[in-house]
Write a structure and sequence with these properties.
Elements lengths: L5 E7 L3 H16 L7 E4 L11 E8 L5 E7 L4 E3 L4 H10 L7 E3 L4 E5 L5 E3 L12 H20 L9 H8 L11 H11 L14 H12 L8 E4 L3 H15 L3 E4 L4 E5 L7 E5 L6 E9 L3 H7 E2 L3 H8 L3 E9 L15 E5 L12 E4 H4 L17 E4 L20 E7 L3 H13 L5 E3 L10 H21 L11 H12 L3
Bound molecules: flavin-adenine dinucleotide.
Flavin-adenine dinucleotide binds next to helix 1, strand 5, helix 8, strand 15 and strand 19.
């Protein structure tokens, strides 16, 4: 694909954040009977989807002569059908079907210590092995309701709270009071198993940041979650989405292997010169830029970023994580009867800051292999995906694809800390200034797919609004953090 000489809009970043912007710019124009803008969607790597990254491999050939092919997701891997209403609506439009293309997963979690001294599940019916005590289970359920409601309806009151302060203050006020182990044995380890914890560890996370995730992905304070996995992996959903867009949205030019560099040409109209970072760069002139890659990547890609925007983007910090698919059961609970879909390591007290993000998926359970008649036949091993495993995985236990490449991915996500909440509260007031817009996970809540899509909708709506009124010349007032989060969670819960 050759880069066009001129376009209306260049969208930088081909993760779901950038795809959402290109989709919504096009769809909103068509809905209003208008002509969609010409868009170039630039992705630096050789595939679409960013953090949605599926790995395919084979266990060889079974006795029946059929290949024992398998897959697993190294990054994005599931979604809550109840809360991801925008994503489900897009899936319906593109013919990505429930029961065929996405299916319910076995939604179980085990919390365990590495030395085998403790392992329990969060289900009311213990999963074969040791169950959570009734008091801890009641407290965990109560937390999901009480804290979920507080994040949605009383967000302003708790906007400066860390999760630790919230639990310590609110726990004793409940009837019955929350079990003192709720934080150390369940909530903090669970937060550690989310992908946006800073090196300060889970206790110092903003209460509202944690609850963003719990509300949307796990149903806290709203309808019970209905978690589904993508059949054949998250990349299958991205492939279906991009395929639909390529067939139905001819106004979009899709450019892979195009690491965009952007410069403002102040005297010209269109104002931006975009080229790829290569020996023989191809150049495109654009009127509008949408930055939908990570904040730090955008800062380096954009030469001469306007000062108010660079101040906001510079406040966003990133975590590097490693995700590995393997057959090494030693990173799972010692008692294999406790193995669940999600297996969350309880750190030794005081050590959490050393390894903020640790979670182990039993991949067979995650993709509900138990419903697959071939599962467990021919001596198939269970296989696992570990994010930041707490022990090294031996090389010969790491799964390999057909080309011999190991199943290892470097995944990055912004920390969801107080600085990010502040930055998010300023984004709206910067949108459109100098014809630049901001999208992607760091701009909206915990950056789940649903939130990336909501941001894409918002950017498109502002683009058309400013086409009528002219783009803002000065940054407006920041939004209030508590109100912003509360409004977003209320909207998501349909309130
Ligand atoms: C380990 C992990 C697990 C997760 N699990 C889930 C999950 O189960 N469900 C869920 O909803 N969300 C999950 N998330 C959150 C997920 O990251 C978001 O849902 C979403 O994928 C973020 O999309 P994005 O477009 O903002 O960023 P990314 O997916 O990171 O995409 C950014 C893209 O920008 C590109 N880029 C960077 N610089 C340039 C440049 N100069 N020019 C062009 N392109 C550039 C990058 O190559 C990349 O492809 C997970 C995240 C992580 C890290």
């Amino acid at each position: 694909m050759v880069a066009p000489a001129n376009v209306d809009v260049v969208v930088v970043g081909g993760g779901v954040g950038g795809l959402a912007v290109a989709w919504n710019l096009t769809a909103q124009a068509l809905q209003n009977g208008g002509k969609p803008p010409s868009i170039m969607l630039a992705e630096a790597s050789g595939r679409w989807g960013g953090n949605a990254d599926t790995f395919s491999f084979t266990f060889g050939t079974g006795p029946d002569g059929k290949p024992l092919d398998r897959w697993c997701d190294l990054g994005v891997n599931d979604f809550n059908v109840t809360a991801y209403t925008k994503i489900v609506s897009v899936m319906n439009t593109i013919g990505f079907k429930q029961g065929v293309d996405y299916k319910p997963l076995e939604d179980t979690t085990c919390y365990f210590t590495a030395d085998g001294s403790l392992a329990f599940t969060d289900n009311s019916v213990p999963w074969w092995g040791t169950g959570m005590s009734q008091s801890l289970l009641d407290s965990a359920n109560s937390f999901m309701t009480v804290a979920g409601n507080d994040a949605t309806k009383n967000a302003t009151k708790f906007q400066n709270y860390t999760i630790e302060k919230y639990i310590n203050e609110q726990g004793p006020l409940q009837t019955p009071p929350w079990d003192p182990d709720l934080g150390p044995l369940v909530i903090y380890p669970r937060i550690n198993g989310m992908y946006f914890v800073s090196e300060l560890g889970p206790r110092s996370m903003p209460f509202l940041a944690v609850m963003h995730y719990y509300a949307i992905q796990e149903g806290a304070g709203g309808q019970p979650a209905y978690r589904c996995y993508f059949v054949d992996g998250a990349s299958a959903w991205i492939t279906a989405l991009v395929g639909y867009m390529q067939r139905n949205m001819p106004n979009i030019t899709f450019m892979l292997n195009y690491q965009a560099v952007i410069a403002q040409v102040r005297t010209a109209d269109p104002m931006y010169l975009v080229q790829d970072y290569s020996d023989n760069p191809t150049q495109t002139m654009a009127t509008t830029i949408v930055l939908a890659a990570h904040a730090d990547d955008c800062l380096t890609a954009f030469i001469g970023m306007p000062a108010p925007a660079s101040a906001v983007m510079g406040a966003i910090r990133y975590n590097n994580g490693i995700s590995v698919a393997h057959t090494d059961s030693r990173v799972l609970p010692v008692n294999s009867n406790c193995w669940c879909t999600y297996n969350i390591l309880i750190h030794d007290p005081g050590s959490a800051g050393l390894k903020p993000y640790v979670i182990n998926y039993v991949a067979n359970r995650h993709q509900n292999d138990a419903a697959n008649p071939a599962y467990d036949q021919f001596g198939l091993p269970q296989f696992f995906v570990s994010c930041n495993p707490h022990k090294p995985i031996p090389e010969n236990m790491i799964l390999k694809d057909a080309g011999g490449n190991p199943a290892v991915a470097n995944l990055r996500h912004n920390n969801f800390d107080f600085a990010t909440l502040q930055a998010q509260s300023q984004i709206h007031s910067l949108q459109g200034m100098e014809n630049i817009y901001y999208a992607g996970g760091w701009t909206h809540g915990s950056g789940l797919h649903e939130e990336c899509w909501a941001q894409g909708e918002e950017v498109a709506a502002l683009y058309y609004q400013y086409a009528q009124t002219g783009v803002p010349k000065e940054p407006g007032e920041p939004q209030e953090v508590g109100k912003l989060v509360g409004d977003r969670l209320k909207r998501n819960a349909g309130l």
